[in-house]
Amino acid sequence: MKEKTKLTCILYIIGVVAMIIGALDPMEGSVIILGGNVLLVISLFMTDDCHKKHFLITLIMIAIGVFFLFYLSSLGGFGGTSELSWWWGITILPYPIAWIFAMIMLIFRVRQKQKANT
Q1: What's the rounded Cα separation, in Å, for the pair 59 and 6?
Q2: CA max distance for the chain
Q3: What is the spatial distance between Cα 64 and Cα 113, in angstroms, rounded to a whole number?
Q4: What is the 8-class DSSP label of residue 27?
Q5: 84 near 72, Cβ under 8 Å?
Q6: Pairwise CA distance, residues 52 & 73, whole Å
Q7: Cα separation of 4 and 31, whole Å?
Q8: CB-based contacts of 105: which residues, under 8 Å, 6+ apart?
Q9: Which residues contact 21 (CB under 8 A, 6 or more apart)?
């Protein structure tokens, strides 16, 4: 049982660090953020955390946003001299929105645990 707890703790920490490091370069770091979010969701499902559904929603949203980020990039981007209008940028919005929501949830979890320990 201790091995499972240790594994979930390691996955959680790696996931959080990956989500923060990936934000340094949102385009190339998007894959790191997606991977970090996957590890985070796996660790939360292993511990049967009450916030696991929220993080699963962020995982789905980040995956959709990252998919469209790379898809639009493969088409030459949008706006400017591209054939695609700026409105195509809306398809990328789930990625930053979900990342911000995940960071808020992580901060909320830390504050909640601090209050429980005092």
Answers
A1: 23
A2: 58
A3: 31
A4: T
A5: yes
A6: 31
A7: 26
A8: 51, 54, 55, 58
A9: 29, 32, 36
- On average, the pLDDT of the chain sits at 91
Closest CA to 59 of 30, 17, 21: 30
Q: Which residue type, as a one-letter code, is found at position 94?
A: P
Judge whether residue 18 has pLDDT over 80. yes
Instruction: Report the C-alpha gap between 46 and 39 in whole angstroms.
Output: 11
Compute the distance between CA of residue 109 and CA of residue 116 in angstroms, rounded to an integer: 11
Decide if pLDDT at 56 tops 70: yes
- Higher pLDDT pick, 46 / 26: 46
Contact criterion met (CB below 8 Å) for 86 and 78: yes
User: From CA 102, how far away is CA 86, in angstroms rounded?
Assistant: 26
CA angle 66/68/71 to nearest 5° reads 110
R_g of the chain computed on alpha carbons = 16
pLDDT above 80 (res 77) = yes
Neighbour tally for 99: CB within 10 Å: 23
